[in-house]
Amino acid sequence: MVSTLRGAVSPAELGTVLMHEHVFVLGTEFLANAPHYWDEGARVEDAVNKLRGLRSAGIDTIVDPTVLGLGRDLPRLLRVNEHVDINIVPATGVYTYNEVPPQFWFRGPGLMFDGPDPMTELFVRELTEGIADTGVRAAFLKCAIDSPGLTPGVERVMRAVGAAHRRTGAPITVHTNPHNGSGRTALRVLSEERVDLGKVVIGHSGDTTDLDYLTEIADAGCLLGMDRFGLDALLDFGSRVATVAELVRRGYAESVVLSHDASCFIDWFDEDELARAAPNWHYRHIDQEVLPALRERGVTREQLDTMLVDNPRRYFS
């Protein structure tokens, strides 16, 4: 069974899935001290409307990798999900490109207070018992490695994620930067942690057109997260579509999942400036533009279902 905000469902009930979407990405400490930047009621209502639009487009489930470092707030998400008929799959983990959060600086193996890594214990508890007092269990693990590479903090989080995977079997999503080959680094570390690579999404693989890199990751058993459709500033629409189509042509449809990495609201940017800079970065870009473009390039309905239905189901099975 797969834990969602509305309860456990079987993998077969996930339906059509976008594998990497956020609802809110927020600095919760910042908002607590600068409440004039945030209107809770308006933001919840806006999220409900956007998710209803996604549901009307035939999307049954979004997988939300918002974890510590990205402002995860499950009570807020539960309020949203009360008003929209869509599965939201929550995660546990830590999002950092550099150091671990200060709550973990002094506790753990070889540290001032030596003992089991409290990150691993937190991840396992959220996967098996629930997040905070919501009664909702996390369904997968999230970590990140970006342009700074495998810093000590990033490596510690990744190995804690690997340890939690060994104890629970929960699948993993890794934020990566394909331009420095960090997907390869993630594979190496997770392999050392004896992770089942068939349960790993190498996220943001769609930011590159390097087919040698992409097929290397897929041949190792991982899923390729072609999951930033709409972020045209990082890679243009035509290149993203052509890369997916070529992967499918080469027989890699079973190695691809699709998404936007979008959100209803992200406080990293000014909202109006973001809309001008990335007008296609929203939940509806895939159904409105990407899928028709893939079909024009010869991708069949069966192959689209493989990427949107079958691969997510297998990941969570």
UniProtKB/TrEMBL annotation:
A GO MF term: hydrolase activity
Pfam families: PTE (PF02126)
Cofactor note: Binds 2 divalent metal cations per subunit.
The entry's keywords: Hydrolase, Metal-binding
Residues noted as binding Zn(2+) 1 in the record, renumbered to the chain: H20, H22, K142, D261
Gene3D superfamilies: Metal-dependent hydrolases
Cofactor requirements of the protein: a divalent metal cation
Modified residues (N6-carboxylysine): K142
SUPFAM superfamilies: Metallo-dependent hydrolases (SSF51556)
Ligand binding (Zn(2+) 2): K142, H175, H204
PANTHER family: PHOSPHOTRIESTERASE-RELATED, PHOSPHOTRIESTERASE-RELATED PROTEIN
Homology family: Belongs to the metallo-dependent hydrolases superfamily. Phosphotriesterase family.
Official protein name in the record: Phosphotriesterase-related protein
